[in-house]
Amino acid sequence: MTEELKELKRRLGVVSDLHNAEAVLSWDQQTYMPPKGAVPRSMQMATLGRLAHEHFISDDIGKLLDQVGSENGAHGYDSDEASLLRVTRRDYDKARRVPSAFVEELTRTASIGLEAWTQARMESNFKLFQPHLEKIVELEIQLANYLGYQDRIYDALLDEYEPGMTTRQVEQIFQPLKGELTALVNTLQKKSDAVNDAVLHDEYDEQQQWDFGIAVIKQIGFDFQSGRQDKSAHPFTTGFGIGDTRITTRVDKHFLPMMLFGTIHETGHALYDMGYRPELDRTPLAGGASLGVHESQSRLWENVVGRSRGFWKYWFPRLREVFPSQLADQDAESFYRAINKVAPSFIRVEADEVTYSLHIMLRFEIENMLVERKVKVVDVPELWNAKMKEYLGIVPPDDAQGCLQDIHWSYGSIGYFATYSLGSMFAVQLFEQAQREIPTLLQQIENGEYAELLGWLRKNLHAHGRKFTLDELAKRITGESLQSRSYVAYLKKKFGEIYGI
Amino acid sequence: MTEELKELKRRLGVVSDLHNAEAVLSWDQQTYMPPKGAVPRSMQMATLGRLAHEHFISDDIGKLLDQVGSENGAHGYDSDEASLLRVTRRDYDKARRVPSAFVEELTRTASIGLEAWTQARMESNFKLFQPHLEKIVELEIQLANYLGYQDRIYDALLDEYEPGMTTRQVEQIFQPLKGELTALVNTLQKKSDAVNDAVLHDEYDEQQQWDFGIAVIKQIGFDFQSGRQDKSAHPFTTGFGIGDTRITTRVDKHFLPMMLFGTIHETGHALYDMGYRPELDRTPLAGGASLGVHESQSRLWENVVGRSRGFWKYWFPRLREVFPSQLADQDAESFYRAINKVAPSFIRVEADEVTYSLHIMLRFEIENMLVERKVKVVDVPELWNAKMKEYLGIVPPDDAQGCLQDIHWSYGSIGYFATYSLGSMFAVQLFEQAQREIPTLLQQIENGEYAELLGWLRKNLHAHGRKFTLDELAKRITGESLQSRSYVAYLKKKFGEIYGI
């Protein structure tokens, strides 16, 4: 390693330490911080964020990137060195394009917007949020112009969350999917009585739920030497370096899936964060490739594995040992059906596997229209409800259950939503490939064995950290780009069978 | 406020944010961090510490101090402005005197020393620690030479923990105290059967202990909107700005005082940290004046209030409601006696109020001899045991219970111990003054009312943050410098009565 590369890595290590420290403060804020700690905490986090940004966009880093880059022609695209330079350069150029004063304005606007949204949602009063969303949309348009784009303005925003992916690509994936999903929802709705999920709403002791969840994720492979689980209002995964990944969950005494699938979902994220090669730690290559790829891991474990028949063949008897009276009249099959009930609903985060992506398409379309100025913020509620009617056949009774339900826009996050669906699709595409390469995979899942699947994901995906884009990973691992074909087939097969179609 | 003062405060705010962030990381490390998080965490904390140091000792801060100082003649000594300049200048000049490379060497040595000490104490093998302690002593001598001193080399080290206090002053306070305490211990030892504390070693449910402790400190005034309590191996208090103060405790099922008095002790520290005027936040004036003054607050609540007869007149009936069978044959008086049993013992942190300061004097004397090169590290165990014999009449069976018991030296902390005793003394001196100014104070304590005492401490002490030294505070509040007279009188009266002398 040259002196320049060493110096580059030293400086990137400082940036990484600052980001990790900020993440610890954020974790604490969402888990244990007392209420009056909020004000000093926001200042501490702002300082860490600002210092990390300043250290990263320094001219020195630019010079080192140039110097190391020119000496580094000998290394292949996949090598740690070439990848470090490529990904750091990408991050660096993007970070340099946005003026610090603008970042501060966006942060400030988002912080006020978040507060206004909280109030607006509580009162279900879109008017309270409207002026803030208007300002946020204008700033996001400005951000896109700073970042630059070739084709569509939305490309610049999407790229923040899903590097390399374009709006047109997403549309090409979503377009056929929309027809398939609305048709499937329609068909399943006609047999909505075929699945009864009342058992999930019985009373389940919170501590027993917690303990069961811990047992499940331990067996999946969550390493409690390198992580822990705590409670928070909104579940999330975060990490502070290779040896310390944290997940949170929430427990609802009267709704078993809340904790259970929330915990498995976050574990999927955590396994990804725990799995990059230690050599990548404290560099921009540490972590996950993109939000979409991250979501593929949470959805793979939560849905493709966690809501599968084989999974519950193993776990249902164990769950019934914990809750014998509540599950007395159930068996693995009835429980499997209950956790896979499909029903159009208003709230995205509570949606089933079939309707979920329709919620996403709606948001993706509205976001595009907003930044292309094809719709005004004031008209969002009406547009939202019209699309809900069109895609899911239902109309929210108020905006709290409609266009005010998600936090993302309020904190200045436009371009994020699509990654949830891309992740769901990629999860299925990956799992299909894993089945090809591990012929006994389904049998292993029925036996409660996950080590080979996890090992396969580690080797093919997790180990690479941020080296590759979603498209690069899809091609490397499955031989083709991300596609919705496998996802649609998976949904049709699984739910067709459950609903007897 | 001039532009220069604003800029100075802005820069000091960044330093404060970095220190607070480091404190959050340290708190997490000691409470919730998974084992494998240790390595990345140490790097993150080192980065934050280094950046805070670099930002603080920058030439810019020096220039701003000069500029603001020259314009600031109009403000009185006690004013926020003059105090900010005075205290920041003191910190700044000291920080600039020590080369960064030396600080790094000390940190590295301490980190290795801590590991060696942990092993040495576990095996009770001083030889394992000896070479590390030798290096640490040499570095501390070097540190003292960097910092500078007028009279005794130990002054420079003591000043790190108790600004403005000299070795000679401490000796003048300790000298008469030593005779009084050894005599008192001797006298009490002759009647050692007069107090039976077996009840404290009964079995007490841990959760019930925890809940009782929370009830006690809430009533004392710990604000759970601005703080919280967690568990850790070694109890401590930390804070991350004016709205967020954390304490930790530990619970022993078979030793009630562990949690109870530990919790009250840390609450004393926390109330001090919660009490400075908010205007001082994010400046070097935030926090406590010194370790000695901090300890005065923990000891005041733990011992002077918490181990008083009046305190238990109120709390004993409530404790017996929680533990009716364990406390069936006790009353407030017998319980009060039990928690005040005096007995020479090997371990400082478990010592009673009477013997405690003798443990301290021993350490203070040995530290002085070490840095004055009057004793070699290799001879410390023998010297320790000889002094234990002389002051307490007992000799530790091994070094784990002797000179290896405390962590301080291992991490390069020489000059710290005296502050524990200075704090114990100051606690009594303060409480005497409070009694003069609040005539019904003892009655209030019998009624479980602490608001007036806390208000008095807030107004006279806490509010000032780091503005004044221990000596300045003692004179302002009690009209005289720190003295041991009140402390000796308090101990003689309290324990003379308990032991019927």
Low-confidence stretches of chain A: none
Strand content of chain A: under 5%
Sheet of most strands of chain A: 3 strands, mixed
Q: Which secondary-structure class do the elements of chain A indicate? A: mainly alpha
* Mean pLDDT value of chain A: 96
Listing every helix as H and every strand as E from the N terminus to the C terminus, the arrangement of chain A reads HHHHHHHHHEEEHHHHHHHHHHH
Instruction: Tell the overall outline of chain A.
Output: globular
Largest sheet, spatial ordering of strands of chain A: 1-3-2
Rg calculated over all Cα atoms of chain A? 23 Å
**DSSP, total strands of chain A:** 3
- Assembly annotation: homodimer
Q: What distance lies between the first and last C-alpha atoms of chain A, to the nearest angstrom? A: 61 Å
Put simply, the count of helices of chain A is: 20
Biggest interchain interface, per-side counts: A-B, 40 and 40 residues
Level of helix content of chain A? 55-70%
How would you sum up this structure, described in words?
The structure is a homodimer of 501-residue chains. By secondary structure, chain A is an all-alpha fold. The first copy, chain A, has a domain at 199-343 and 438-464. Helices cover 64% and strands 3% of the residues of chain A. Chain A has 20 helices and three strands. Chain A has helices at 3-31, 38-56, 59-71, 80-97, 100-123, 126-147, 153-161, 167-190, 206-220, 256-274, 291-305, 309-322, 332-338, 353-371, 380-392, 418-437, 441-446, 451-460, 470-478, 485-498, and strands spanning 227-231, 237-239, 245-249. In chain A, a hairpin with a 5-residue loop joins strand 2 and strand 3 (245-249). In chain A, helix 1 (3-31) crosses helix 3. The longest helix of chain A is centred in the N-terminal third of the chain and has 29 residues, at 3-31. Chain A is globular. The termini of chain A are far apart. Chains A and B meet through helix 1, helix 2 and strand 1 of A and helix 1, helix 2 and strand 1 of B.
